[in-house]
Write a structure and sequence with these properties.
InterPro entries: Com_YlbF (IPR010368), YheA/YmcA-like_dom_sf (IPR023378). The protein has helices at about 5-15, 20-30, 35-55, 60-75, 80-105, 105-110. By secondary structure, it is an all-alpha fold. Helix 3 runs antiparallel to helix 4 (about 60-75). The chain starts with a helix and ends in a 6-residue tail after the last helix.
Length: about 120
């Protein structure tokens, strides 16, 4: 078994998945609507900003989280933006699951800091 062949098989399966196709269709629709595209762009930037701050150990900023919630509430009224975010989240979930499956399968060998 060639691991690279399996990786290419996985890439092909992801590429042909219903979730990825739905994501691409939603992206195409958002790209054609400047307002929806801007809403999604700003939402994702704000979401990433909050996540990076939390990962760096900063305390939760309730104002930023409230801003993010308001942005999401507005997106709910724009079908293209809403559909894109839903498709994006579904596909991201698949990618996260695949990473977890791979990581779990080799976790023992990657645990460099395990206590002896």
């Amino acid at each position: 078994m060639n691991i690279y062949d399996k990786a290419h098989d996985l890439a092909k399966a992801l590429n042909n998945s219903d979730e990825y196709r739905a994501f691409l269709a939603a992206k195409q629709a958002v790209d054609a609507d400047e307002q929806a595209k801007t809403m999604v762009h700003n939402f994702i930037l704000k979401q990433m900003e909050i996540e990076y701050e939390m990962m760096s150990g900063k305390p939760e900023d309730k104002d930023k989280i409230e801003q993010l919630q308001k942005m999401y509430d507005l997106i709910a009224y724009n079908a293209k933006a809403h559909d894109f975010l839903q498709a994006h989240m579904r596909f991201q979930r698949i990618i996260a699951d695949v990473y977890k499956i791979i990581g779990d399968s080799v976790a023992e060998g990657l645990d460099l800091f395990a206590k002896a």
